[in-house]
C-alpha cells in the first residue's frame, strides 16, 4: 500500500516537471510567454530549376522621364499625369508590389495579390528623384530604378539620392555602365558592362543588385547567359505585354514590360492589356 502510494506521488511529480517541456516543444513560437514572429521572406538561394507556370497577369510598367516636355515626347510623362496614373491604380484596386515580391512569386516562393503591378524607371534621370519620388511617397508606393552608372552624379541622380530611395524601400538595378547595345558587344565588353556596373552599384550603395535592364531592350541568348553568369536573378526587356509566362529559368531574363506615355486613356488601356500592339 505504501509502495503504491509512493509511485503515485512520483508519477504526479514527473508529470508536473515534463508537462511544460512537452507544451514548449508543441508550440515553438512561444518561449516564456514571448511570441517569436517568423522571419520575413527574403531572396537567398535560387532553385536550380523552375516549375513552368501558365501565363499570369502582372504588368511591369516602364517610365523614363517624369517631367513636362513640349512637344510631347513618348519618353516623358508630366508630374501631373504621373500623379493621376498612380491615383488611378490606387482607386481601381491595383496593388503595386516590389520587384522582389514579383520575382519570388514567379519562382513559386510567394503569392501575388489581385491586380499586381510593378513600377520601374530607366536610366537614373534626376527628375525621377525630384518629381517621381515625392509622388510615390504620397501614395505609399515603391519602384525599381535601373541606373546607368556613368550618369550618376553627372546630370543624373546622385549616390546620396539613390541611398535615400533605397532607405524608402525602393530597389536599384543595373542599366549597365554606358547604355550600349549588348547584343553587338564582344565577350569582354559584355562582361565589363554587366559585371562592373553591378559591382560599382553594390560598392557605392551597400545593397545587392539582383536585376538588370537591357539597354534599348537589345539582347540575345549570349547576353542572357552572360547576365546570369554575372549574378543577376532576372532581366527586363521592352516587349510590350502585361502577361508573364515562366517556361524555364531563361524566362526570368526575358521579362516583358509596358512602356508608359503621357496619356491617361492609353495608360488605362495598357495596364489592362488593351490595345498593346
The gist of it:
With 277 residues, this protein is α/β, with parallel strands linked by helices. Helix content is 37%, strand content 15%. It has 2 domains: 2-31; 56-271, TIM Barrel (Alpha-Beta Barrel).
**Number of separate strands:** 14
Radius of gyration: 25 Å
CATH class of the largest domain: Alpha Beta
State the CATH superfamily name of the largest domain: Glycoside hydrolase/deacetylase
Provide the CATH architecture of the largest domain: Alpha-Beta Barrel
Task: Tell me the overall shape.
Answer: globular
In terms of structural class, how would the helical and strand content be classed? Answer: alpha/beta
Task: Enumerate how many helices there are, as a single number.
Answer: 8
Please give the share of residues in helix: 25-40%
- The whole-number mean of residue pLDDT values reads 86
Provide the succession of SSEs. HEEEEEEHEHEHEHEHEHEEEH
Flag low-confidence runs.
1-42
User: At the third CATH level, what is the topology name of the largest domain?
Assistant: TIM Barrel
Distance from N terminus to C terminus (CA atoms, Å) equals 93 Å
Structural commentary:
The structure is a single chain. By secondary structure, the chain is α/β, with parallel strands linked by helices. The chain has two domains: 2-31; 56-271, TIM Barrel (Alpha-Beta Barrel). Helices cover 37% and strands 15% of the residues. The chain has helices at residues 2-26, 79-91, 99-106, 127-138, 159-167, 187-205, 221-229, 264-271; strands at residues 30-31, 34-35, 56-57, 60-63, 65-66, 76-77, 95-96, 116-123, 144-147, 171-174, 211-213, 234-236, 243-244, 258-259. The strands form five sheets. Strands 4, 7, 8, 9, 10 and 14 form a six-stranded parallel β-sheet that branches. It has a two-stranded antiparallel sheet with strand order 1-2. Strands 3-13 form a two-stranded antiparallel sheet. Strand 7, helix 3 and strand 8 form a beta-alpha-beta unit. The chain is globular. Mean pLDDT is 86; it is low at 1-42.
Amino acid at each position: 500500500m505504501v509502495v503504491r502510494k509512493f509511485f503515485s506521488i512520483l508519477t504526479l511529480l514527473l508529470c508536473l516537471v515534463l508537462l511544460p517541456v512537452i507544451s514548449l516543444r508543441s508550440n515553438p513560437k512561444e518561449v516564456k510567454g514571448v511570441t517569436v514572429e517568423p522571419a520575413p521572406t527574403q531572396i537567398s538561394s535560387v532553385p536550380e530549376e523552375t516549375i513552368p507556370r501558365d501565363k499570369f497577369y502582372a504588368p511591369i510598367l516602364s517610365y523614363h522621364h517624369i517631367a513636362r516636355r513640349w512637344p510631347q515626347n513618348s519618353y516623358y510623362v508630366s508630374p501631373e499625369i504621373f500623379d493621376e496614373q498612380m491615383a488611378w491604380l490606387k482607386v481601381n484596386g491595383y496593388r503595386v508590389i516590389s520587384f522582389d515580391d514579383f520575382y519570388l512569386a514567379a519562382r513559386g516562393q510567394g503569392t501575388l495579390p489581385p491586380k499586381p503591378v510593378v513600377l520601374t524607371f530607366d536610366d537614373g534621370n534626376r527628375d525621377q528623384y525630384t518629381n517621381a519620388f515625392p509622388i510615390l511617397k504620397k501614395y505609399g508606393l515603391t519602384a525599381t530604378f535601373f541606373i546607368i552608372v556613368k550618369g550618376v552624379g553627372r546630370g543624373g541622380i546622385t549616390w546620396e539620392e539613390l541611398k535615400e530611395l533605397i532607405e524608402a524601400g525602393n530597389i536599384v538595378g543595373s542599366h549597365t555602365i554606358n547604355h550600349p547595345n549588348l547584343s553587338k558587344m564582344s565577350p569582354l565588353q559584355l562582361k565589363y558592362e554587366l559585371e562592373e556596373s553591378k559591382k560599382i552599384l553594390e560598392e557605392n550603395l551597400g545593397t545587392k543588385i539582383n536585376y538588370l535592364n537591357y539597354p534599348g531592350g537589345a539582347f540575345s541568348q549570349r547576353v542572357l547567359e552572360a547576365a546570369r553568369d554575372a549574378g543577376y536573378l532576372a532581366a527586363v526587356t521592352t516587349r510590350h505585354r502585361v502577361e508573364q509566362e515562366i517556361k524555364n529559368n531563361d524566362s526570368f531574363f526575358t521579362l516583358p514590360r509596358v512602356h508608359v506615355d503621357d496619356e491617361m486613356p492609353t495608360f488605362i488601356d495598357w495596364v489592362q492589356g488593351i490595345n498593346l500592339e
